[in-house]
Amino acid sequence: MQAWLCTTPTGVDALQWTELPTPEPGAGEVLVEIKAASLNFPDLLIVQGKYQIKPPLPFVPGSEFAGVVRAVGAGVRQLQVGQHVACLSGTGGFGTHVIAPAAACVPLPADFPLVDAAAFIMTYATSHHALIDRAQLAAGETVLVLGAAGGVGTAAIQIAKAAGARVIAAASSDEKCALCASLGADATINYGAADLREALKAATGGKGPDVVYDPVGGALAEPAFRSIAWRGRYLVVGFAAGPIPALPWNLALLKGASLVGVFWGDFARREPQANAAMMATLLEWYRQGKIKPVIDCTMELSQLPTAYARMGSRAVMGKLVLTR
């Protein structure tokens, strides 16, 4: 097998395309031949040594992938050789093969495109857990999605619309706002050109959004929280902008608002049955056409450094997927 190997977490330039022995699965594991792997923001942080999870060196980055089971280890009953699966294992995706825990692999219908499958779990599971479970989003409520043209943002728009909510999509350019409108957003805000608070007042008649979905953090967090509706829920999803904001706590008091943490990975670990039920719902929604990953572009796996550069420049709309 071959893979992009990180021997020192100093950045993308330190990755090397390396030939490695093809491993054999142990008990409870499967060997997956990778056909597609998506690039997520944590994949950039992890090779820079900035992610909260720091795998032992050396490691193969790539958190999310889809492919074909080529071998199964002892005790694996739910998967068979030749089966198509998607997996979010944290590492290992940027190679030709990977050993994955069988329990982490989602069996796919035969007609589920592997490019879509590689771009599915992280964004849709995060967004569904955030909006439906943590925020308890109700039909008719208004959701503000920050960073709405990114992977989790585009998933959040689709899930909020499937739940019957009104969606205000906020992004950093007119091009990104146009993408959000094409996905069903009821209103858009280009926060690169407009004052976020004033635009939200206009879009909500002064009421503010009931739910704020924030994977961005940084300077947008405080004006968004100041704009939230009474009894609003502010979902802390991530910090793509870099800085972790420090919010004045009196804002939560004055608005009767909740600051709600979203950590889908630990939800999946702590509540596996609830997570499995959620994934079944998402697969059914995909089958029904309610949700579909937005694919920015596909690149060959050999182009991983170029893919990282595109993500680092914040040019990606939806998900970037590497194929082989």
From TrEMBL:
Coiled-coil residue spans: none
Domain Enoyl reductase (ER): 11-322
InterPro entries: ADH-like_C, ADH-like_N, ER, GroES-like_sf, NAD(P)-bd_dom_sf, Quin_OxRdtase/zeta-crystal_CS, Zn-ADH-like_protein
PROSITE patterns (UniProt xref): QOR_ZETA_CRYSTAL (PS01162)
Entries under CDD domains matching the protein: QOR1
UniProt name for this protein: NADPH:quinone oxidoreductase family protein
Lineage: Bacteria, Pseudomonadati, Pseudomonadota, Betaproteobacteria, Burkholderiales
